[in-house]
Amino acid sequence: MFERLEIRVRKYRFNYNGTITVILVEDWPKRCPFLPSGEEKKSVDISGNTLLVYYYLLKNGQEHGVREIQKALGFSSSSSAHYHLEKLIHKGILTKDAYGNYRINEETKVRLIERFFIFHGHMFPKQLIYASGTTSMYLFFMLFFWDSLTMTVILALLPGVMASGILWYDAAKLWSSLPSFKKDVR
Asked: Are residues 48 and 104 in the same domain?
């Protein structure tokens, strides 16, 4: 008749007003320690065709209907496009207006896309900024101080050059994680 409910508690917090805030294990990764009590980061994970639909809406930056998304992404039926759009609404990523058009909710972030910045409809990994900055710094150093380069200076610069290479690798890996469209998306 009654089901046994087990709750694992991760942390207690005693508030100034005499209440106790309990953080459950399931809620732990979603909470941000720098925000005041009760506020959480709104960040969700999506993958597959749902990520493809979100990426299409993000890239085009306007409202779209079910049929537009079906045709643009090459889905076999409008019900599959509708399924992914409703899944995004359920996660709080999209909103639907009275005319049946879907638009991105700016308050919710997708974890994969948080690592990118958007410039004129194109997405670039944030690590690209760091990689190009460190690489240009080392190139300018080599250009201006070419005469005074010794083996000691080169060995001192080596850890920074390796860090720059790691940043370039990470930027390329992130860039390749973006979904690709099956046909030309306009």
From this structure: yes
Tokens of 137: 């710094």
Give the torsion through C-alpha atoms of 68, 51, 80, 58, to 10 deg: -20
Which residue range forms the structural domain that includes residue 100? 44-110
pLDDT mean by block of 10 residues, the chain; 186 residues: 50 57 50 50 72 82 85 88 88 84 77 76 84 91 85 87 92 80 48
| Structure tokens belonging to residue 118 | 């958007």
Sign, CA dihedral 15-17-18-24, equals negative
Total-model pTM: 0.55
Residues 137, 170, single domain; the answer is: yes
How far CA 180 is from CA of 9, 174, 175, 184, in Å, comes to 41, 13, 11, 10
CA atoms of 39 and 171, how far apart (whole Å): 31
Look at residues 173, 155, 156 and name the one whose alpha carbon lies nearest to residue 165: 173
The reply to whether 75 and 126 lie within a common domain is no
CATH number at residue 57: 1.10.10.10
Question: What CA–CA distance (Å, rounded) separates 70 from 77?
Answer: 7
